Amino acid sequence: MTMTLIDTDGTAHELSGTADRVDGSELATATGWLPKPEGLCRGDVCVPLLGREIELEGGQVDLAEWAAALGYVVAADADFAVAAVIASVPTAAIEVGSEAPELALPDVDGTMHSLSEFAGRKRVLVTWASWCGCRHELGAWRDLQDELGPAGLSVFSVALDNSADDARPWVAAGEPSYPVVVDTAHVTAERYGITNVPSTVWIDEAGQVVKPPTISPGDDQFRDFTKVDAAAHHDALRRWVIDGALPDSTAVPVTPRTVEEQLAQAERRVGAWLHGRGETEAAGRHLARAVELAPWDWTVRRANIALRGDDPFLGEEFVAFWEEWDAAGRPGYTPMSS
């Protein structure tokens, strides 16, 4: 029997086994975690097993025990032999001075782009999605790239979408002069602590975060909804790129994801995988579980509405969610002032 393991970076591996026990040699080859006397090792990093019995008869590995040893949580569907693992706590603390996590993702045509390609330049990581009004803002970011690129800025845009085809028409309409990649596994959201879009992160020439994620629209088309002045962010961005000046409000603390919110990302990945194979009922169970675990995470909740083919803009479910979220004080929606 074959099962699918969705790794921490969103890569899907086909392995011999079930949703709870897999071929040990195939697991090691797929993930790079090799069993050694000192524990599970990948490169120079070794994680001690501390008495955990991960190996089963016949060369199989207990996936839950293996994941626990590595500090992962697991979402699984036994009926369809699929499991997703993700770190139980974020892999990095996103705060001023922290190292920006690497991203390597494909554009709508499958060409890979990485954030590190622009090392030595100031970078602004821009996140958006086709289910957000910010899908219309790629042209505004193009104008900023064209203006500030000669001064040392590189825009790196990530669509937190369910497929390249969802993002494709908006990329074509925006005619970007910067890389636009598609993150179907929402690895960017997990690594950078992003729960809503449009969010931006500023990264300096040395690869350090100088502004953690804040809500930063590309323009003011939806200002009545966002209640955020795009010019305040853009003017601050200009001052940073040209003069190296950082506003005090860049030091907005980022609340680390909880174990439940991390598990929500794993459940969303399993749900999206099942949905892509036409198993809508099973997908719905995992997507609902993701919402239960992370009710204010728009990258989970609103993205799920779009995934199911419902209206993520004016549909009844979205309107009810928006009213609930607005009444709660717009959790996770932190703007940046100048």
Give an overview of the whole structure.
- There is one protein chain.
- With 338 residues, this protein is α+β, with helices and mostly antiparallel strands.
- The protein folds into 2 domains: 86 residues, no CATH class; 249 residues, Glutaredoxin (3-Layer(aba) Sandwich).
- 34% of the residues lie in helices and 22% in strands.
- It is built from 11 helices and 16 strands.
- The strands form 5 sheets. A 5-stranded mixed β-sheet has the order 14-13-12-15-16. The chain has a 4-stranded mixed β-sheet with strand order 2-1-9-8. Strands 4-5-6 form a 3-stranded antiparallel β-sheet.
- Strand 5 and strand 6 form a beta hairpin.
- The longest helix has 18 residues.
- The relative contact order is 0.13.
Q: Would you spell out the secondary-structure blueprint of this structure?
A:
Elements: E1 2-6, E2 12-16, E3 21-23, H1 24-31, E4 34-36, E5 39-42, E6 45-47, E7 60-62, H2 63-69, E8 72-77, E9 82-87, E10 104-106, E11 112-114, E12 122-128, H3 138-148, E13 153-159, H4 164-174, E14 180-182, H5 187-192, E15 199-203, E16 209-215, H6 223-226, H7 230-243, H8 259-276, H9 280-293, H10 298-307, H11 316-327
Parallel strand pairs: 1-9, 12-13, 13-14
Antiparallel strand pairs: 1-2, 3-7, 4-5, 5-6, 8-9, 10-11, 12-15, 15-16
Helix pairs in contact: 3-4, 8-9
